[in-house]
Amino acid sequence: MGTGGDGTTAFNSTIRLERTREGDIVDVTEKVRAEISKSGIMNGICLVFVAGATGAMSVIEYEPGLLEDFPEALERLVPKGHTYQHHLRWHDGNGHSHVRATLLKPDISVPVIDGKAKLGQWQQIIFLELDVKERERELYVQIVGE
Hints:
Helix content: 25-40%
Strand order of the largest sheet: 1-2-9-4-6-7
CATH class: Mainly Beta
Number of helices: 4
Structural class: alpha+beta
Number of domains: 1
Radius of gyration: 17 Å
Largest sheet: 6 strands, antiparallel
């Protein structure tokens, strides 16, 4: 943890996810809340970033209907069976994974107010595994504030 000259503090940590597979939607809300609590920061912003070009971060109402609807929507928008130039160049079968990750983004920012993540009643922070290969992922958490 570091303190800036203006009284702000930065806290950095890592959340590790083991064995994610294509289509996994992992609720990391409680893990992020734990990092905010560890940081001691009362008011600021929490950034969660996935390193890798085929993973994404977002928020969702983590309930069975949406856990089915969201992957179906991704398939309609960026179909797996389409011909992607990335696949033709690298022969790794994950062109759709890269396009989906680009549209969704690798990070999410959440306000920290009174030492807690300020989420709506039905919002959960999620990691989406979009790659065709099983992965271990690291989510980098940075909390900045006072």
